[in-house]
Specification:
Layout (H helix, E strand, L loop, with lengths): L1 E5 L2 E3 L5 E8 L8 E6 L5 E7 L6 E3 L7 E6 L4 E6 L8 E7 L9 E5 L2
Parallel strand pairs: 2-10
Antiparallel strand pairs: 1-3, 3-8, 4-5, 4-9, 5-6, 7-8, 9-10
């Protein structure tokens, strides 16, 4: 199983970023997936879930209405569109199989003016 996150960067408050997660080594289309994040010095925080078919999603209250999770099962890709970014969104973002710990290196998102 391999999950590789990308798309992070430095963005000003109110800005947008789209994170991507490339999956390989397993049958991506049958697994529910999630995004989680870890801010400096803090525990992992769940961000969002998406079911295998991509038609059911869930979000943490802290990101609801600002973030959108999606997937492309034909491309083995998971996405997180983030808008209205706030400084408190600064963290390393990871994708993972739902119910499992992250496997990749994550991608750093920094929201700062």
């Amino acid at each position: 199983v391999q999950l590789v996150e990308s798309g992070g960067g430095l963005v000003q408050p109110g800005g947008s970023l789209k994170l991507s997660c490339a999956a390989s080594g397993f049958t991506f289309k049958v697994f529910d997936m999630k995004w989680i994040r870890q801010a400096p010095g803090k525990e992992f925080e769940w961000v969002s879930d998406i079911n295998s078919g991509g038609d059911r999603t869930a979000y943490a209250d802290s990101v609801k209405g600002r973030f959108t999770v999606s997937r492309d099962n034909a491309k083995n890709m998971l996405y997180l569109q983030m808008s209205g970014l706030k400084p408190e969104d600064t963290a390393v973002y990871y994708c993972a199989l739902r119910g499992n710990p992250p496997l990749g290196q994550g991608t750093q998102v920094t929201v700062s003016s």
